[in-house]
Amino acid sequence: MKPLTGILSIIGGRRAILGLGSAYIILSVIWPFASIPRPTPLEEELIISVLIGGTGITLFYWSYRLPQTEIRPEFFDTVAIWCFRAIGVMVSILVVIALVAELNDPAHNFLILPALAAVAGTGAGRHDARAKTRTFTLKQRNRELQETQAELEETVARLEESEQRYRTLAENFPNGGVALLDDELRHTIVGGQGFESVDFVAADLQGEEVQEVYSGEILETIESHYRTTLAGEPTSFEVTMQGRVFEFRTHPLTDDDGDVYAILAMSQDITERKQYEEKLEQLVADLEESNERLEQFAYAASHDLQEPLRMVSTYLQLIERRYGDELDEEGEEFFEYAVDGAERMRSMIDGLLQYSRIETMGNEFEPVDLDVVFDDVCEDLRVTIEESGAEITTDRLPRVEGDENQLRQLFQNLLSNAIKYSGEEPPKIHVTAEQNGEEWIVSVIDQGIGIDSDNQEQIFEVFEGLHGDGDYVGTGIGLAVCERIVERHEGEIWVESEPGEGSTFSFTLPAVAGSGA
Ligand code: ADP
Questions:
Q1: CA-to-CA distance for 452 and 20, rounded, in angstroms?
Q2: Considering the chain, what is the average pLDDT of its residues?
Q3: Going by CA atoms, what residue is nearest to atom 10 of ligand 1?
Q4: What's 190's DSSP letter?
Q5: Which residues form the pocket of ligand 1, taking CB atoms under 6 Å from any ligand atom?
Q6: Tell me: the pLDDT tens digits for 145-202?
Q7: Whose CA is nearest to atom 21 of ligand 1?
Q8: Which of 21, 144, 460, 509 is 20 to 30 A from 42 (CA-CA)?
Q9: Mutate to test the pocket of ligand 1, among 349, 456, 477, 479 (most ligand atoms within 8 A of CB)
Q10: What's the pLDDT at 517?
Q11: Which residues, in sequence order, are bridge partners of residue 268?
């Protein structure tokens, strides 16, 4: 049957049957008129022609309708093979009969019987093709099912792997616990390394609802925050359990539609941190208190010292008036030392009073034009400037947020120091300003005697004067006042200096909000 299969695969099974049907129909039409010598009467010939025509029409109709049946196109050849096989079998039988016995009507037998066999064969072929189609469909479904099953297995494996990853993450959560809870507040994944400090075992919480795990006030706090999270709000709160403080943070987990399907809750054991914070707060409070006490002490001490000092000065003046003439040269020298000492002490007490009042007696901050402050200070220092022949230049200075009186004091101290420590040459001083984000850096640059790098920090301490060996008179409190003023303005002050080359004192002040310059 191989040649037949080959031919059919070229022509196509359906077309072959269609062709055969058409051939039978044509034959049925021309048969009665064919000029073959006929032993039978014309009526019989007509019946034969009808039989062949019927066969042709049946084959034609079946093959025409094939695509509308459930039979798949690749099995149309099967139908055709059955059809032509039946014809072949019938023809073989007829040949055998014709050889063994005599066929009394070979023309009619060879015409009708193979035709009828073709119909029978096509019918059987249709059944066979239908069966094959069903087998094919079943196999295909089976394959699809197997593929779906493989995909499912892969998805399950992936899910297991990702759950395992979450579990590992949860189990290694340090110093606390982490849990996933479904929308009924049941723990679906629990882990963490902070459970040892309390009597919880992570595995025991697994599958438990929040009401089964906690009780009393703790349950109330935790449940209410979890419910808030289920409503879509993250929360954070603290709970004390068995003497340990836990900080809880919760986050809603949402699906693609934005609906909350679970919540993530993390808790951290913050007991030590809390204790540390409390200690720190206590320390800061103690420090503030002691600072305040020191300020009060400095204020009271300097204030109370003024009275006895006034007495000393008054009696010194009295002595000078009454007994001034009676003093010999040495006595006058001693007397001058005493007056000098009293004068120095007065300056120191004034400085100390000023220093102790910076925090407590300061004014509210407001926008201050440093150009105006600079001009005012130069005016106040006019005599000193003229006497020393100082040349003071400045860039355009900005407006800053601050206490105008204190800023005037700051400029005055720095400029008078720059004049005082200028050395032999007439002082040359330049003031600059540079913006740095939200603040200004102002610098007072001189070309004076400079400061040794070892002493550059110490000069900002109270009573730390460096050059007080006779050449320069000072109280050692001016820069300490400057530092306090700058600190009150939340800024910093520092010095860069080369001995013999000069010093640059820089400080930062807050820019006026939104000024940009
Ligand atoms: P004082 O009353 O002694 O000037 P300050 O606190 O104003 O006190 O200054 C502390 C010390 O810092 C001064 O004694 C001086 O040695 C040093 N100093 C301050 N300003 C300058 C400067 N512009 N150049 C060099 N040394 C300075």
A1: 122
A2: 89
A3: 465
A4: E
A5: 413, 417-418, 421, 446, 448-451, 459, 464-468, 474-480, 503
A6: 999 999 999 999 998 888 888 778 777 888 888 999 999 999 998 888 877 777 777 7
A7: 417
A8: 21
A9: 479
A10: 44
A11: 176, 247
CA of 393 to the centre of ligand 1 (A): 21
Pocket test for ligand 1, best of 346, 413, 417, 431 (most atoms within 8 A of CB): 417
> What is the chain's Cα-based Rg?
57
Sequence-distant (6+) residues with CB within 8 A of 159 are none
Widest distance between CA atoms in the chain: 191
Per the CB < 8 A criterion, the answer to whether 342 and 313 are in contact is yes
CA 300 / ligand 1 centre spacing (Å): 26
Query: How many of the other CB atoms lie within 10 Å of CB of 163?
Result: 12
Cβ(312)–Cβ(346) under 8 Å? Answer: no
Q: What is the pLDDT of residues 212-239, one digit of tens each?
A: 988 999 999 999 999 999 999 999 999 9
Q: Best substitution site from 451, 454, 460, 506 to test ligand 1's pocket, by max atoms within 8 Å of Cβ?
A: 451
Prediction pTM value: 0.55
- Give residue for tokens 């007994």: 323
Q: How far is the CA of 195 from the centre of ligand 1 (A)?
A: 61
Summarised one tens digit per residue, pLDDT across range 471-500 is 666 778 899 999 999 999 999 999 999 999
pLDDT of residue 390: 95
User: From CA 212, how far away is CA 222, in angstroms rounded?
Assistant: 12
Given a contact cutoff of 8 angstroms between Cβ atoms, the answer to whether 399 and 364 are in contact is: no
pLDDT by residue (tens digit) across 17-47?
A: 999 999 999 998 888 777 566 666 777 778 8
Residue 413 CA, closest ligand 1 atom number? 7
Measured CA to CA in angstroms, residue 211 lies from 184, 225, 243, 283, 341 at distances of 10, 13, 21, 41, 80
